[in-house]
Amino acid sequence: MNTDIQEIISKTGTERNRLLPVMQEVISRNNYLSETAMRDIAKAFDISAAEVYGVATFYSFIDVSRLGRNVIRICKTISCDLKGKTDIINAIEKHLRIKLGETTPDQKFTFLQTNCIGWCHQSPAMIINDKVYTELTPEKAIVALEEWE
Ligand code: FES
Questions:
Q1: What is the number of structural domains in the chain?
Q2: Cα 40 to ligand 1 centre (Å)
Q3: Pocket of ligand 1, candidates 120, 126, 133, 136: which has the most ligand atoms within 8 Å of its Cβ, to mutate?
Q4: Which residues contact ligand 1 via a Cβ below 6 A?
Q5: Is residue 43 part of a domain?
C-alpha cells in the first residue's frame, strides 16, 4: 500500500464515513485519485474497488484522472445555465484553445463542469482551484483566468 495512504488512514481511521475525507486528502497530495490509490483505499476500508470508484465518480470534486495545475470548474446547474454559462464556456474554450473536459498541452489548466457551487444568487459562477468567481461575463472570466496564467 502507498505510504501516503497508510499515513492518511492512520490519522482518519477506516470508519465508512471517513472514506470521502481520505479521498480528498489523497487528491490534495497527488492532484487526483489514481486507480492504485482507489485499490489501496478499498483494501484499507475492506470494501470493493468498484464501490470506491462509484463514490469517487459520484462527486464532481473527486478527480479520477490527472489534472492540470489549475482546475476551472464552471457551474452547469440551472441558475448559471439561465444566466449565460454557455457564453462563459465559449469564451474560456476560445481563450485556452481546449474544450470542456480537456487539459491544456502545457498542463496549466483543466476545464471542467460541476454541479451547483452555492452561488446561484450571483450566477453565473465558477471556481478556479479554490477561488470563487461570480456574476461572470465572458470578459470577467478571461480576467479570472489571467490571474492563474
Ligand atoms: S446554479 Fe450555479 S452556483 Fe448554483
A1: 2
A2: 34
A3: 120
A4: 75, 77-80, 116-120, 123, 125
A5: yes
Residue 93 φ then ψ, to 5°: -60, -45
Cell 440551472 belongs to which residue? 78
Residue type, 47: I
My answer on whether 77 and 48 are in the same domain is no
C-alpha cell at 63: 478527480
Walk along the chain (149 residues) and give the pLDDT tens digit of each residue: 677 889 999 999 999 999 999 999 998 888 889 999 999 999 999 999 999 999 998 887 888 888 999 999 999 999 999 999 999 999 999 999 999 999 999 999 999 999 999 999 999 999 999 999 999 999 999 999 999 99
Asked if residue 80 and residue 47 are part of one domain, the reply reads: no
Residues 128 and 78 grouped into a single domain: yes
Count CB atoms within 10 A of the CB of residue 37.
Answer: 24
What number of other Cβ atoms are within 10 A of residue 97's Cβ? Answer: 9
